Amino acid sequence: MKGTNSVETFHSNPNKDFVRHDFDKVLVGDWSQRLGHRLKYLGLPSALMYDIVDWQEYLDRFSTIEREENQQHLMFLKANVSNFEERLHSLYGEFDDILLTGRDRYGHSPQWPYDLVNLDYYGGFIYSNQKRPKAIKKLIQNQATYEQSFLLLITQHLRDGDAGHDQKLTFLQELNHLLKGGVIDTRLHPKIDLITSWYAAPNLPDAARQALYINFFLRDAGESEHFDVACRPPIIYEGTGGTWMIHFATDFAFKRGLACRVASNQTLVEVINMGLLEVRNGAFTPARFVQPRLNGAV
Ligand SMILES: C[S@@+](CC[C@H](N)C(=O)[O-])C[C@H]1O[C@@H](n2cnc3c(N)ncnc32)[C@H](O)[C@@H]1O
């Protein structure tokens, strides 16, 4: 029976299935092997729990977040028929609020820490109130409190001209200074200017800026909480209902015994040069643009 506020259940599509099964599942399996145990999951699996069902062999317990009441009920049913209800810990509300306040709408808390976090949400990253970046920073801080390494998956809407354009431009200026500060060979500085102005161009699809911006944000937030951060090229794909999505998969390996911030093994230049991947018709396809690279040859 549908209530007046009932929201449609999320249904998958071939591109999403490819990203979840052919890309993420491999990472989840590798991460489980690296940690030497099944993974404790925190995420937004939706009522049909496609990710939990697909990755089950690598998962231990899972905390799920869902903001729609009717979807929450359907999730319980799905867990029951799938025979994993006893492993389900369910939280109800907006995930940003739960991460920021540490409580869901009923006062229940996440069971920190987690090995795998799958934030697969509707909407973008930057809103005027900065709630989402703050929530993700809080998640990273919580994991650091327990000195717990984790794999973070993020999927969000890719919207050209998304809010926060000015913020991305400010970020590009910061990145420009940071790179020039770190690159001793001053002959490379014009190339750095070329790269940052390529990303700042107003006609550039926002996917390119988002790719760099979010990977840089995750690296920065992680390093300051003592994680060695390894980013991957994000994947863009057309999701359910024709909306374009962008997907990030990032390793956060906790480094014990450090008082100052970590310098990740992966260099900033590697992050800049990684570009992005594109999925169409359920398979990888050449990406629609190739970003400029920073290397010795100017
Ligand atoms: C895209 S689906 C998840 C798909 C799933 N992870 C998979 O692999 O197929 C997102 C789910 O999270 C819920 N959701 C979206 N944004 C949310 C938010 N900001 N807070 C809490 N739940 C949210 C939606 O109602 C939906 O059930």
Any key phrases for this structure?
298 residues; alpha/beta; Rossmann fold; 10 strands; globular; binds S-adenosylmethionine
Write out the CATH superfamily name.
Answer: Vaccinia Virus protein VP39
Bound molecules: S-adenosylmethionine
Number of strands: 10
Question: How would a crystallographer describe the biggest sheet?
Answer: 10 strands, mixed
Give the C-alpha Rg.
20 Å
CATH class: Alpha Beta
Could you report the average pLDDT, rounded to the nearest whole number?
91
**Alpha-beta content class:** alpha/beta
Give me the strand/helix succession. HEHEHEHEHEHHHEEEHEE
Number of helices: 9
The CATH architecture term is 3-Layer(aba) Sandwich
CATH fold descriptor: Rossmann fold
Task: Tell me what the structure shows.
- The chain has helices at 14-35, 50-55, 69-81, 95-101, 131-145, 165-182, 189-200, 206-224, 268-273, and strands at residues 39-43, 59-66, 88-92, 116-120, 150-157, 227-230, 235-238, 244-254, 277-280, 283-285.
- The chain has one domain (14-164, 206-285): Rossmann fold (3-Layer(aba) Sandwich).
- With 298 residues, it is an alpha/beta fold.
- Strand 7 (235-238) and strand 8 form a beta hairpin.
- Helices cover 40% and strands 19% of the residues.
- The protein contains nine helices and ten strands.
- Strands 1, 2, 3, 4, 5, 6, 7, 8, 9 and 10 form a ten-stranded mixed sheet that branches.
- The mean pLDDT is 91.
- The longest helix is centred in the N-terminal third of the chain and has 22 residues, at 14-35.
- Helix 6 packs antiparallel against helix 7.
- The structure holds S-adenosylmethionine (SAM).
